[in-house]
């Protein structure tokens, strides 16, 4: 799969429903936005269609966040998701939240794709996505 298919970028703005009692973005909202990043990647790569067809389900096994600076009401920010690597079971991802060329938060995720038989190994997933997109497999 081409490298750009493993990156998702979303440009967003902090809205009133994103805020907590301290009037900055709620920590739970960061996790929701990480989910949106992953869904964007699934759709853009063709994985969403493949998951529906094969009845696969994406599941996050672990997620951590480090908060550096608050996002306040109406702050513009960009969040990028990069799939950094995978092993025999998990995909590993980094979510970077940027505002005004400054990192405001970083998250890491570890996720799997599940079928009714159990975990679908990432190599099988990547090859299936490439095949569905008509790409000669480059995944080793």
Automatic annotation (TrEMBL):
Coiled coil: none annotated. CDD domains: 4HBT (cd00586). InterPro entries: HotDog_dom_sf, THEM6_lcsJ_thioesterase. This is Thioesterase.
């Amino acid at each position: 799969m081409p490298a750009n298919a493993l990156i998702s970028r979303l440009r967003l703005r902090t809205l009133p429903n994103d805020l907590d009692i301290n009037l900055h973005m709620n920590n739970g909202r960061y996790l929701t936005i990480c989910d949106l990043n992953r869904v964007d990647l699934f759709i853009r790569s063709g994985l969403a269609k493949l998951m529906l067809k094969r009845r696969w389900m994406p599941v996050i096994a672990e997620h951590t966040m480090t908060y550096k600076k608050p996002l306040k009401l109406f702050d513009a920010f960009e969040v990028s998701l990069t799939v950094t690597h995978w092993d025999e079971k998990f995909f590993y991802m980094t979510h970077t939240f940027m505002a005004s060329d400054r990192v405001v938060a970083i998250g890491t995720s570890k996720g799997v794709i599940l079928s009714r038989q159990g975990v679908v190994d990432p190599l099988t997933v990547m090859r299936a996505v490439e095949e569905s997109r008509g790409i000669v497999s480059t995944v080793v």
